[in-house]
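Q: Convert this sequence to structure tokens.
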Amino acid sequence: DYGAARLIGADVPLERPYTGGQAVPISLLWRFEGWPPNLEPLDYSVNVSLIGLNGATLAQRAGTPAGTFGRMTAWQPGHYIRDNHALLIPPGTPPGRYEIWVLVFDWRDGRSLPIRNRAAAQTHIVIGTLEVK
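A:
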């Protein structure tokens, strides 16, 4: 829950191993809750990243939700938004397990929005773990 938008689901085919050079199809489902008083209405961006278990970023895709058609300032309270991404696993990625992280950020300064109702100042949500062979 990023204040205005709540990530309520993610579809990621994790049942099979991937190899370097393949794209992972990721479909996020957002529910817009309305702009809280402490959050500036803005067309925030979404970042989807492939993270090694050591915390290193191997791949990422950042941009406006829904392929630039999902500008958050046009979202209506109570509506659902399907946000599709393709995350390319770099060729030569070592075999292993990797997490997929999602975060929302202000594109003007790169500042990540914190997730509400979390004890720590966490800014990302782990939506799954995939295996690279």
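The chain is about 0% helix and 45% strand.
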